Amino acid sequence: MTVTAERPLLDGPANGGVTARRAVVRWAWRLLRRGWRQQIVVTALLALAVLGAVVGGSAAVNLTPRADARYGNADHLVRLDGTDPRALGEGVALARQKLGTIELIGRRFVPVPGSVESLELRAADPRGVYGAPLLALDRGRLPRGPGETALTDGAAEMLGLRIGGTLTAGGEHRTVVGIVENPRDLRDEFALVPPAGAAAPQSVTVLAKVSPETFDAYRQASRTPLVTDTLRGGGQAAAGVLAVATVLLMLVSLVAAAAFAVVAQRRLRQIGMLAAIGATQRQLRLVMLANGAAVGVIAAAAGTLAGVLAWMPVSGTLETAAGHRISPLSPSWSLILECAVLAVVMATAAAWWPARTVARVPVVQALSDRPPRPKASHRPALLAVLLLAVGATCLVLADQTSPPLIILGTFCTVLGTLFASPPAIKALALLGARAPIAVRLALRDLARHRSRSAAALAAISLALGIPVAVIVSTAAAQDTAATGNLSDRQLLVRIGQRGDAVVPIRSARELAGLSAQMNLIAGRLGGARVIPLEMAADPAIKPEPGFEDAQGGQPVADLGIPTGGSSSDQGGGDGGGRADGALRSVPLYLANPQLLAHLHVDPAGIDPRTDVITAQTGRLEIPSVSKPEVLTNVRRVKGTAYTSDPDSVLTTAGLERRHWKRVPAGWLIESGRPLTTDQVVGARHIAAEAGVTVESRRDQRSLGQIRLGAALAGMLLALGVLAMTVGLIRIEAARDLRTLTATGASGRVRRTITAATAGALALLGVVLGSLGAYAGLLAGYSGDIGRLGQVPVLYLAGVAVGVPLVAAAAGWLFAGREPPAISRQALE
Question: Whole-model pTM?
Answer without folding.
Answer: 0.58
